[in-house]
Structures are given as C-alpha cells and as structure tokens.
Amino acid sequence: xxxxxxxxxxxxxxxxxxxxxxxxxxxxxxxxxxxxxxxxxxxxxxxxxxxxxxxxxxxxxxxxxxxxxxxxxxxxxxxxxxxxxxxxxxxxxxxxxx
Length: 98
Hints:
By secondary structure, the chain is mainly alpha-helical. The protein contains 4 helices and 2 strands. The chain has helices at about 5-15, 20-25, 30-45, 60-75, and strands at about 50, 55. Strands 1-2 form a two-stranded antiparallel sheet. The longest helix is centred in the last third of the chain and has 19 residues, at about 60-75. The protein starts with a helix and ends in a 21-residue tail after the last helix.
C-alpha cells in the first residue's frame, strides 16, 4: 500500500467518479483505476460499488476512508512547519538584462 494509492482512493471517493478524480489529480484515468484495483486486491475487498461511470463507497470502503483521512492529513503536515525539514528554500530572484 502506497501513499499515492490512498490519495487516489480519497479523491475517487469524494468525486464518486474515476474520470473526475483523475482530472483533479492531473493524472491518467488508468492510473487512478490501477491504484484502486491494487488497493482492493491487497485488502481483498471491494472499496467501491460501481454503477456505470459513477462509483460509491461500499461499506468496507467507508470504513477504509475513515482510516485513510487522518493518514493523508498527517502526511500533508509532515514538512509544513517552518524549519522542520531543513532550511527554507531560497526565494527565486529575477533580474532583467541591461
């Protein structure tokens, strides 16, 4: 299980549509589908109920989503505090040629 799979799963759950999730993530639709299929294979359960182009969380998917949310939140906070992950990047300076 990889962090990107959890992120793709979360977007798909929010959008209830793989195409829309892939658009928002700016990745190929097949990448989102493969990530979710991989999660489902690893967990040995269906996370979504598929109905044509629309999807909705299964009961196991809802339980999994509740566990995934704090993981993604914590991952997003890892290096957000100033100075925790080394020196802050230097601002980009632009100069015009004379």
